[in-house]
Amino acid sequence: MKNNIILLSAILLSGLASAQIGVNSPDPKATLDITAKSSTGTSRAIDGLLIPRVDRQRAQNMTNIPVSTLIYVNDITTGTQSDIAVAIDYPGYYYFDGTLWIKLNPNISGIDQDNNIYNTDGTLDTNRLVEQNDKTLAFTGTAVNAFSVDGSTLSVDAANNRVGIGTLAPNSLFQVVGGEARIGGPSSQTGTLADPILRIHSNANKEGAGGALWFNENNTGYGYYLKHNTSGGTTNGKDGLSIGTKGNVSYNPARPGIFISDYQEIGFGTSTPQQIFHIDAARDNDIFKVPTADQQKNDVVMTKEGSMGIGITEPNESAILDLSTTDKGFLPPRLTTAQRDLIKTKTAGLMVYNITTNCLEFWNASKWVSTCAAVAPIVGTVSQLVCSNPVNSGTLTAGTAASITSKISYIGGNGGAHDGQTVSSTGVTGLTATLNPANFTNGDGELTYFITGTPSASGTAVFALFVGGKGCNLSIPVSAKAAVVSDILCGTPTNNGTLTGGVAASGVSSVISYTGGNGGAYEAQTVASTGVTGLTANLLKGNVNNGTGGFFTFTITGTPSSAGTANFAITIGGKSCTFSRTVNAPAGTVGNLNCGGTVLNGTLKNNTVVAPGVTLSIPYTGGNGGSYANQSIPSTGVPGLVATLVANNFNVGSGTLVYNITGTPLGEGTAYFDINIGGRSCPAVAVTVNVLQESDVNCAAGSNDVYPYPNVNTKYIRCITLSGGATYKYIYTCPTGSLYIPSAKKCVLQP
């Protein structure tokens, strides 16, 4: 202590004398000059300056700190790296800059703040390992190539939230450019991963959702796809996987090249396979529906039971092959007798068509059995064909589809068969004469040709016939073309005037538009109405426009039999349609309502829901057949009931109105309905509402009490339960002048 005092006194005296202090120096060169006792040599004596040593918590809690105060922080496990101690992150020297404790040597923590990866490129001298433990390592950025490894080997597009391999600018969420993306081993295919998995998962269980793989060529729309539909529906078909193309065939995952459903059904051209195997050759089946008969014509299926269907999607389970068609046949192998006999191994049931004998044959395990004559039929011949006097069943008109027959005579038939023929017309082209195969008669007879097609013009159609070894020219005249239109638009007529049931039409017409037109003529028409009868639509003859479209004007006459819809079926220019006119009902009236003849069908009871079928019938006379509207009439007297009449028409003459009674009567006695309809009225039509009986009352089990009588305050109900469990119910009426008071549970005389 004495030495300390002497040293302090010396320092103070020296400072007072020269304002400079020297330690171990008689001649200080600065305000404070500390000289080592032994600045050289091998002395083990300690020289140096000990700055105040504090932990981070002490430094953090100092106040009123002068600028340039120097400390040594020897413990950073205390306090927190915040406030004025935000930079204290490592033991060492710190000075106060007026705001924070600043590290005297920034490299004390091993970081060169003036030269680091944030502001300077560099090269690693050795391998580096970052141990994160439970800490995270995050990079943020806004650039397209915000983070990359070895150029385009790996690139992170922070601007668009994308990742690229082989590209610095990925154009999708994840893009691999060039080379191959592989799960499993290297190019030698001998990787250590035995069962690699690539999974595309969708959490959306709805139609049209699910993962997909696309294979595209360049930037065109052509390519291939593999698409998963996660739920069945009418747009994408069943739940399953579609494989198909896009480009040469329209992209449609509901009608893909191949489809596998969630039940392992396989479809070709359809995502709605009807069996375990289904080909829709025309890809025309409705989605998620059973195909129609026409759609099934090009379908092939195989059921899980082993039945195959062609032209049918539900083959008969008893058949291994079920063929269905309305316009084709079954064509077995066609062989000559010589070719048939060359078949080496024949199994019983083997079938061929023998073109030598023109017969279907089958092998019965020992010989060929023919289904017809064993020899070829006689070839039919005639001595002469006579085309000069044909008998035609109809006429031919230019531009109009033909469907007539023409009969010609022949002489000297031998009874043999002919194969028929099909002959195209000359002169007027566009027609075909068809003769079906048949047999000539022995002697003279007739041949019937079916004339079809559309004559190209007016004139004469000539058919060069040759059958039975003879020929002749059949000539049929073709008249000028009749009117032809593309379509008649019956659905959008322009209607003039109105129609009323029972009233003669006057000034009423309908203008029907048409499209197309060939300039041909049409005849006058008179079309009777259906639905509402009694009307006639009349069209004058004329010509349609040539290609521009136009309209037909029908004048409507007659007296409609009733209200409703009158329909007129018209056919003009090869097109048909039906246009309709609304016939209004006259206002309904009656001559008389028989108020005294009303009948209540069913019973009504106080506080009881009206049973279905309870009606009130009111006869009337003098009806005019006109219409009346819906009615709903509430009851009076006894409220709670409604009489309902459904809109309809009066009969012509007498009839009966039937009101349905519904609701719950809120009382007993007489309920009244005020009826007013058809220009007549029945005020206060009365119906009886019956009183409740003891059998209608429900008493709680074990009850012994009195209760209010429903809707009537002059009665009450008593329930009595005997010791044996039997319950008795009684209905009492209060004395005259008194009312039942529920709170008092008794009848009380009223003042």
TrEMBL record:
<protein>
    <recommendedName>
        <fullName>Chitin-binding type-2 domain-containing protein</fullName>
    </recommendedName>
</protein>
<dbReference type="InterPro" id="IPR002557">
    <property type="entry name" value="Chitin-bd_dom"/>
</dbReference>
<keyword id="KW-0732">Signal</keyword>
<feature type="signal peptide">
    <location>
        <begin position="1"/>
        <end position="19"/>
    </location>
</feature>
<feature type="domain" description="Chitin-binding type-2">
    <location>
        <begin position="696"/>
        <end position="751"/>
    </location>
</feature>
<dbReference type="InterPro" id="IPR036508">
    <property type="entry name" value="Chitin-bd_dom_sf"/>
</dbReference>
